[in-house]
Amino acid sequence: MTTIVVALLVLLSTVAGGIVGSARVVEAASGDPTAIETSAATTESHVVTPGESIQAAVDDASAGERVVLKPGIYEQQVVIRDDVTLVAPNGASLNGSGLSGDDPAVTIEGDASPVIVNISISGYGIGIDAKRASGDWVLRNVTVSDVRRGIEASGTTGDWAVRNSTITESNNGLMAAVSEGNWVVSNTTISEYADDAIGAFGSEGTWTIRDSVLRNSPGEGCYSNAVGAENTTGKWTIVDTRIVNSTCAAVATWHSEADWTVRNSTLVDAEWGVGTRFSTGNWTVVNTTVREAEVGVWAPQTTGDWKLRSVTVRESERGVSARGASGNWTVRSTTLVGYERGVVAVNTSGRWQVTKSSFLADEGIDIVARSTGPTGNATGNWWGSSGSACVGNVDCSVPLQAPPGATATPATTPTKTPNPSPTETPPPSPTPTQNPGVNESTSGSVGDDATATPTSATSPGLSLLESLFGLAVFGCFAASQYHRTE
């Protein structure tokens, strides 16, 4: 019987080791393309110190190998043509101040899919030049400053990513014009740019900007957009992102055929928060705040179907402008504060609705709907204590008696005239729910926001260990009983 117990214990040890080993494999295969930087010691490394040639080490490295830069300043240029990792574990700087103005620091060519980690770049014409590359390259913890263009990714067809990086003092932060791949910019700050922070005009792929900050210095005149997405045809998303001080639009989508989403974001101090003139795609702005813009959402001559849900527009001359729109659009659960015109729906021909929303302005017209086709439906809204100020072909009846979210009973109340002088201060407006932890795999969804309830999962490995341990204990007990009966 002793032999049986020992066998059970050996089995327990073997299975437990297998379970732990499997967990390591799963963790290593988590999908993080930069995991190679901390991989096992079996990965070949080519170490470079200041004064030595990075290019020689890169050329000598095979696919999957690492080129490790020791701390210091490297006044060099690098061309990468293979799937290598260029990493500076303790930081290193590429400085191009002594080179000509258009020279790139790092060039990615062809179908190479390198990983570049923890490197600072300054003084070059272009920080990272991947123009027309087709590989799936990754930048992580990269800082680019004092360049003409931070990252050049125009014409790329691969699925590339920029993560946890900073680009500052450039004409363009990142240029991805006419790109076709599915790319991601996440946890990245782009600041002090002269033109667009991210230029994606003409792009055809599915791309995402998430958990990032695009911030410029205040300026006069319209000369830069934070995100320039004109003439796009793919499907793209901006989520959990803050955009500040855009001299033109925070998000510009002129002539766009794409179906796009702005979600859980804040757009501050721009001529237009979202400007989407002549667009034909179907788009959504949800759980987003726009402040201090001339127009919060500017959608004239749009032909696609679009919706605003749980949006707050504050301190803008016009909250939502849909002049000449022919698509069907909806404004729902939205708060407009401090405007001259809340919603402008002049010369529209599609069906439109404004519902469960709050209009809070001491003076101004809530909805202007002159020369519209179908009658606009603006029933079931909160107009403040003095009633609605609606002009034109729109039904503003059945107002709420309290802001949405409070106990709101529909009732008929007197209609206020344009430019009213309310006798009391409107109640505070609700703010949209922010969700900075949106899962990246679902960030592109434009459906109703659902709050996921965390669920606990039982570990299969733990249950098996418990079972085998119990079996071993039972074996010991059975052996003792066997010897006792003998």
Tell me what the structure shows.
The protein has a 36-stranded parallel sheet that branches. The radius of gyration is 29 Å and the shape is elongated. It has three helices and 38 strands. The chain is mainly β and 486 residues long.
Task: Summarize this structure briefly.
Helix 1 runs antiparallel to helix 3.
Write the topology of this structure.
Elements: H1 2-28, E1 45-48, H2 54-60, E2 66-69, E3 73-74, E4 78-80, E5 85-95, E6 104-108, E7 115-122, E8 126-129, E9 138-140, E10 143-145, E11 149-152, E12 161-163, E13 166-170, E14 172-175, E15 184-186, E16 189-193, E17 198-199, E18 207-210, E19 213-215, E20 227-228, E21 235-239, E22 242-252, E23 259-263, E24 266-275, E25 283-286, E26 289-298, E27 306-309, E28 312-314, E29 318-321, E30 329-332, E31 335-337, E32 341-344, E33 352-355, E34 358-360, E35 365-369, E36 376-377, E37 390-392, E38 394-395, H3 460-485
Parallel strand pairs: 1-2, 2-5, 3-5, 4-6, 5-7, 6-8, 7-9, 7-10, 8-11, 9-12, 10-13, 11-14, 12-15, 13-16, 14-17, 15-18, 16-19, 17-20, 18-21, 19-22, 20-22, 21-23, 22-24, 23-25, 24-26, 25-27, 26-28, 26-29, 27-30, 28-31, 29-32, 30-33, 31-34, 32-35, 35-37, 36-38
